[in-house]
User: Fold this.
Amino acid sequence: MAEAAVDRSSKSGLGPAGKPFSTFERLVAWRYLRARRKEAFISVIAGFSFVGIMLGVATLIIVMAVMNGFRTELVSRILGINGHMIVQPVDGPFTDYPVLSSKLAAVPGVKMALPLVEGQVLASAQAGGSTGALVRGARAEDLTKLTTVSDNIKSGDMVGYASGDGVLIGSRMADQLGLRVGDLITLTSPDGDITPMGVSPRIKSYKISGLFEIGMSEYDSSIIFMPLEEAQLYFNAEGLVQSIELFVDNPDDIDDLRPKVEEAAGRQIAITDWRQRNQTFFSALQVERNVMFMILTLIVLVAALNIISGLIMLVKDKGSDIAILRTMGASAGAIMRIFFMTGAAIGIVGTIAGVLLGVLVCVNIESVRQFFSWISGTVLFNPQVYFLSQLPAEMDLSETISIVVMALTLSFIATIFPAWRASRLDPVQALRYE
Assistant:
């Protein structure tokens, strides 16, 4: 009776209620997964396969999350201080910038229009020390709306800036030059006054009204905000601006907004968006991300190869068991499903454990960084090198699902050959010397 039941279950390939694997097949597969004293070496290989898949999946999730976090943080910080669209004149300077800014700000999807005057200077302190800097002249009311700066005033305030008597500088520049709020910073521009002897540099000192800290060291160490009217005088641009930067609701909708902005301007303008200005940087970041994904996938692939070796050894060790099952009526398909379940179980459990480990590390990524910094006694993820003051991690659901699918697919593929080899075992040959 039992043999007939086994035979019927094996031939149909379906257990009770139409399950893809019968109870008999699941029972035998589970027994093969349990460690026994004489099968200790096989169990060690299965353990390494499990750990390999777990670490491979976890590493992929962590690295991809960190790189996603990098991109999100860099985009938010770069675009937080720079406009998503930069409008520049073609047919003449922007002398009507107050009216033009109002027109562009009224375009649906545009949050703010920021008229700017920019120029490179040499910033120096009275006590000595100097550094190159970028001066950005902006109206006080516009800079207040630029929350990336106005909400990150580390010390001081914008009162002096609003009255036109002070400038805002980055905290890292202040530390580098030894400056504090209330001190004077001297700016030297090569484009100064024209004299009979040629162009003389323009040198002028300004009182520091406040120190801002955006969190991106490149900006905190190189940017100075100056009241627009003062910047126009300093850079010989009285009554005009060089460009108008537009901040939009959704940076990915730039292509749809471009014709609306051109129509609202009512004159010839040149538009450059954030993707064009940072194309090289973000393209390199995307290439690095793809390469890292492919390299780390090899970890999962190696773990899947361990499943193959472990199952082949298991098949060789269980040759007599397979022969007995075949003589009892188990079909070749049933044997194949048994060993497929044995290998697939390692891949499934390893993948689930890897996802849990990866999520746990991503949620506590900053604590992990601080722990390893404490262990090694060095500063990991130096903000002066990596631009950001904290290690970011942002998990993407679709990306995590693709990692899980990839790991499971490799695990399932790895089990096919050993399972097929087990199903092809000849019972007569296996039992000849038993």
In short: The CA atoms of residues 267 and 357 lie 57 Å apart. The chain has two domains: 2-73+282-431, 92-267.
